[in-house]
Structures are given as structure tokens and as C-alpha cells.
Amino acid sequence: MKMNLLIFLLFNLIYVARGNSKPNILFIFADDYGFNDVGYHGSEIKTPVLDKLANEGVILENYYVQPICTPTRSTMLTGRYQIHTGLQHGVIFAAQPNSIPLDETTIAEKLSESGYKTHMVGKWHSGYYKKECMPTYRGFDSFFGLLNGVGDHYTHMLSRGGWSGYDLRRNETVSTKEKGQYSTFIFAKEAQEVITNHDSSSPLFLYLAFQAVHTPLQVPEQYIQQYEGVIKDKKRRTYAGMVSAMDEAIGNVTKTLQEKGLWDNTVLIFSTDNGGRVYDGQNNWPLRGWKGSLWEGGIRGVGFVNSPLLTKPRRVSHEMIHVSDWFPTLVKLAGGNLKGTKPLDGFNVWETINTGEPSPRTELLHNIDPVQTPWYGKPGSGGYQWCPQAALRVGDWKLLTGCPGDSRWNPLPNSSLNLNEENYLNNDTKKLFLFNIAQDPEERHELSSQYPEKVKELLLRLEEYNSTAVPVRFPNPDPAANPALHGGILEENIGYLVGDSLLAAAFLSYAGPFLSNYRDELVMQNWIAQVRELKVACTPKFSFAEFLAKPTTVRQWNIQGLPSDQFSTENGVIVTRGNRWPLMVDPQGQAIKWIKNMENTNGLKIIDLQQSDYLRTLENAVQFGSPVLLQNVQEELDPSLAPILNKSFIKR
Fold first, then answer.
1. Which of 177, 450, 478, 611 is the 20 to 30 Å CA partner of 254?
2. Same structural domain, 530 and 616
3. With the CA atoms of 173, 174, 179 and 181 taken in that order, what torsion angle do they form, in degrees rounded to the nearest 10?
4. Is 42 part of any domain?
5. Which residue from 179, 221, 279 is spatially nearest to 489, judged by alpha carbons?
6. How far apart are CA 28 and CA 273, in angstroms?
7. What cofactor does this one take (predicted)?
8. Domain-embedded: residue 393
């Protein structure tokens, strides 16, 4: 009996180096970094590396982020406002079954399509309740960092709400050897290793999201000592040391880019994720408000771009730019396209940065949070009301509704300024505010009563935005994620992991030669029932392809010619993940086409077992590391092939 089967043998992948003209991209986030805490804004905190990079590049002084961590990160990664991803309320907390929606395309996925090697180091804080939410399933080739939003900088433990768990990962695996090491330095070291080991034949996208300078206030003592006698406030002195340590770490990363010979073709973006938390040493003076608020102190970002590729460097830009703009800007800069994404809220602002052209952005939605229950009044007044918290900027005008958050101006600790009477602006009764930000960036002169028509215009625009909002994603924590149930580790929900692994192993070993309908029958009608009989939990609608194939990998296969249907994806997984060289059914020749496209530069040999000298070809392939495709395999195989099919090689 003759079967239309083929075997693909890939002894060693050999890639031909190609010249690369696409720019490398280094995107750096600083966490909870205050507007008044960088040297070039006049701070007493020393930031020589950031100052040099900013002054030699383009400083963005009309640059906006979101008021808290998760929304800013999700907006950068997707190019979409948080009202369009369901993340418009709060952050993603540990154990919440929540993430950036899985149907959103990330910037890492789009850059991968353009041939980039994509790596993430540092703070993820974009959801991890199942493996598909993890960075390595959202477009990144590698990940090293923490999944949550906060933790001890040395022990890497997160303790919240009676739970305590360890939070440091390398890809999907817990990494414990870094216990006791300061997070700023281990993240910088990892970034340096990524750069050092990068094959420069491909462009690099490195997303470096520091945990610094988020609380807890921790840093090696020598970084604090330089501020003794300079900064009196103990919290700010420790915080200043954290800033200096981060500044030094960034210098080490850029130095490695130079030593590797990558700097001259690199674009570096530095950004805060939100305003500083003023009660923990950070400062946003002279802006109003702080982290978590929609006042300028919560959303005006510290940002700049540095690159030898800039046409007009050494400038300060006052053009309006938002964190959502990085997605289309960097994808276009990389020579990619925006096909396959949902409608973006970001704009391509590269020429604004590069040559000083006017920004294509003339307005931005800061947020609409229908869940936020605001508090009004001075301390002790006891007044509570409800009104959607929202803010919108159109041209020079900014409208805020509800309670925009803490409304105080906060001078430096021990300052002689006293703004107590000015600090509340009738917040005990007021629910709507209007400012001309171009003339009044400190939001000291409220104008809603003077410009009622402008208020009406902006409220209508806010209503238009609200009509496009998706429901809020803010589920309750999942008790199954309690670290106490997982050896003290903050984990995604792993209740089905054992059963799903058993099903995947069976599929990988036995399902290759069968057609799609028989594979489905094996899994749904036989194997799942047998696993449950053993009292092992598994996913009710288990999908082999989804369990073992990363979306970025599948996308690359599709580019190489593999059809996007489930059957073809399963075959792709079997080819690349099997413990033995797989036997696959390929009735329409689709797998052959894919393999040829994938290996066309690596000397692929296609042979038929009826050929008299096929063993010689196999021996040469084993010796020299070449791929081989055996096609038209019949019912019986030559026993001499068994060691090869089982990967039973002896290296001498």
C-alpha cells in the first residue's frame, strides 16, 4: 500500500547572513519617574547619561503618556487608546484573569514581520493569566523580567492582599538565580547580553522596561551617599539614588551598543510611563497632580529620542506626541506595514521628530473611566459623588470631567512654597474643568465659565470617543492563582497544564500521519475522555496548535507559505517540536511548498526512497548539517533509517 506521506529531516539550520539597513530600536521605559526628576528639567538629581542623550537628540516637551502603568504599556504595545482595549480602569493586578486582549496585534509582532529580532527585558505588567498572554506569545523572541507591576528590587517578591509570591521569569520559566541582585542592574545586564549576542544580520528591537524608579525605595547605599547634605528629605534622597543607578545602567546599555557596532544604526526612545508618586520622593513640579491623575503632573511624560540617524538633532520639540504614536511610527520606520491591525489611535510622528515637521496629531484622549468613583472635597469634608473620570485635549484646550485625581501642586520637600489654599480649586463641588494648556501648562486658571461654547464643543467630542469604547476589563482575582498553591510562585492559571501536556505529547507522537477529521476525533472523542477518567484536568476544547505554537512563529510560517488553517499549523508544530523526525500526511503538497520556502537557502535535498543512493545523501546531510526531505514514503521503511528518525546520533 502506497501512502502520500513525507518526512522532513532538518539536521541543522544554517542561515545566510544578509546586510541590514533597517534601524535597530531600543525603547526604554522608566517607571513612576517624576517630571522634575531629570537633570535637563533643572532637577538636583544627577542624570548625566539621560541629559547627554536628550540634549544630543530631540527632547519631547509636549509628550503625553497615560496616568498609570498598565494603560501606558498597553497603549505603546498596541497603538490604541485604553478605551479600545478595555483597560481604561486601573492596572492589572496579580491574580486577575486579565491582559491586553489576545486579538490585539502588538508592536513586537509587527516588527517580527519586518525581520526584527525582538526581545523584552524588565516589567511586563500587561497580563499573564494564561500562557498566551505572556511576552513570548505576544511577539517577543525572548523575555526576562517581572510579570507584575511592583515588587522588592532585591528579593523579587510581590506581597499584596495577604498573598506573597516570587516574580522573575526567563521566558515562561521561573528564574531564581537572581535572588538578592538589584533589579535595575540585572535588567541592564540582560539587555547588554541581548545586544552582545545579537546577530547583526537582522535588525534588533529591544524593549527595556525598568522596574526603577517604582517603590519600594531601594538602591545600593553608595548611590544614596552622593546626595547626603544635598537632599534633606530621606525618601527623596533614596529615590535620587535609584534615579542615578538607572541613569548609570542606561549608560552601560548604550555603551554596549557602541562596542557592538550597532549604535550608528540605532534609534533610542526614552519615556516615562506616568507621572511621579509625590509621597514617595518623586516630584512633578511645576505641573499639577501626580501619578494616577489626569492633571498634567500625571500624564505629561519625560521623553526624548536619540539617534545618529536624526536629520535635525539637538532640538526641543513642542509638537503634540502621545505614547500611542510609537506603534505606527516605529513600524513604518522599520519598513513595515500596518495591515492586520485594528484601527490605530496613534500617528506616525517620525518626521515630526526627525526634521521638525508639524505633528499630525492635533488632539488626544487622555482617558474615559466609567468605573472610577471619584472623591470630592478637602480632607475631612466627607463628600462623595459619582461622575465619569475623563480628560480630552483638542489643540490648546483641555477638558476634564469628574474627579481627575489628586489636584495639588507639590513643590520639592522642604520648599518654602505654601499652596494649600490654592490646591483644591473647589474640587468639593466642581465636576468639570477647562484649561488652555498652551498658555497655562500648570493648570492654574480654570476657564469653563468663561468659554461655555468651548466646553460644549469638547463635551460633544468626548461623547464621540465614548461611543467607540469597549466594556471595561477588570475581573476579580482568581483564587487559583494564589502563590501559596504554586510553591510561592506568582503563576498563570496552571490548573490544566498537566492534562494539556499529556494530550500534547500524545498528539506529537501519534497524530502526524492522520488527516484533520481523524485527529479531531482522536482528541475530542477519545483522549480527553481518557484523561478525565484518570481524574486529570485538561482544557475542555484542547487545541494542540494553540498549546505548542506561538502566534509569532505561526505568522512567520504563514509568510513562508504554510497555509493558515489548523491542520497545516499542527503539521508545522509536529515538524519543529517532535522528539523524532515526523511522519506527516500531505495530500495537497502544502507542507512540501512550505519546507522548500523555509529551507531554500540552506541546500535542501529532496529525495525519494526508491533512489538507489539515497543513504549516501542522508549520510552527507548528517555530516554537514543539511536539511533533507523524504517524500513518497511507503508503508514500510528501511530499518537503517530508524536511528535517524529517532534522532539517535552520536557526536564524535
1. 177
2. no
3. 40
4. yes
5. 179
6. 10
7. Ca(2+)
8. no
Give strand ranges (E) for 385-427: 389-394, 397-401
Tell me the percentage of the chain whose pLDDT exceeds 90: 60
Quick: pLDDT tens for 411-463.
877 665 555 545 455 455 678 999 999 999 999 999 999 999 999 999 999 99
Give the pLDDT of residue 2: 44
Degrees (nearest 5) of the Cα angle 606, 612, 614?
Answer: 35
Residues 325, 195: one domain? yes
Is it the case that residue 57 has pLDDT exceeding 90?
A: yes
Among the listed ranges 86-90, 202-206, 550-554, which one has the minimum average pLDDT value?
550-554
Quick one: CA torsion of 394, 398, 402, 404, rounded to 10 degrees? 120
- Could you identify the residue written with the cell 525605595? 217
Reported in sequence order, the residue ranges of 327-423 that DSSP labels E, i.e. its strands, are: 363-369, 375-376, 383-384, 389-394, 397-401
Together in a domain, 130 and 251: yes
Please, what is the average pLDDT of the chain?
A: 87
pLDDT single digits (tens) 12-28: 433 333 345 899 999 99
Q: Is residue 580 within 8 Å of residue 8, measured between CB atoms?
A: no
Domain boundary among 304, 338, 361: 361
Whether 386 shows a pLDDT value over 50: the answer reads: no
Indicate if 566 and 616 belong to the same structural domain: no
End-to-end CA distance of the chain: 39
Catalytic residue among 41, 84, 119, 125: 125
Q: Are residues 40 and 183 in the same domain?
A: yes
pLDDT digits (tens, 9 = 90+) for 91-108: 999 889 999 999 999 999
Instruction: Give the number of other Cβ atoms within 10 Å of residue 172's Cβ.
Output: 13
Instruction: Tell me if 569 is assigned to some domain.
Output: yes
What pTM did the predictor assign?
0.77
List, in sequence order, every beta strand (DSSP E) within 339-382: 363-369, 375-376
Range of the domain at 278: 24-361
The better pLDDT of the pair 431, 84 is held by 84
Which one-letter DSSP state was computed for residue 300?
B
Helix (H, G, I), strand (E, B) or coil at 78: helix
Say yes or no: 218 and 331 in one domain: yes
Q: Are residues 532 and 644 in the same domain?
A: no
Does 69 qualify as catalytic in the annotation?
yes
Strands (E), 395-449: 397-401, 432-436
Number of domains in the chain: 3
Among 298, 329, 361, which residue terminates a domain?
361
527-531 contacts: CB < 8 A, separation 24 or more?
Answer: 527/503, 528/503, 531/499, 531/502, 531/503
Question: Which residue, 280, 246, 316, is CA-closest to 41?
Answer: 316
Give 455's strand partners. Answer: none
Cβ atoms within 10 Å, residue 362: 11
**459 in a structural domain:** no
Q: Which residues contact 241 (CB under 8 A, 6 or more apart)?
A: 219, 220, 223, 224, 225, 226, 227
Identify the sign of the CA torsion 430, 453, 470, 119: negative
Chain length of the chain:
652
Residue 122 binned pLDDT confidence (cut-offs 50, 70, 90)? very high
Residue 376 confidence class, pLDDT cut points 50, 70, 90 = very low
Are residues 154 and 70 both part of a single domain?
yes
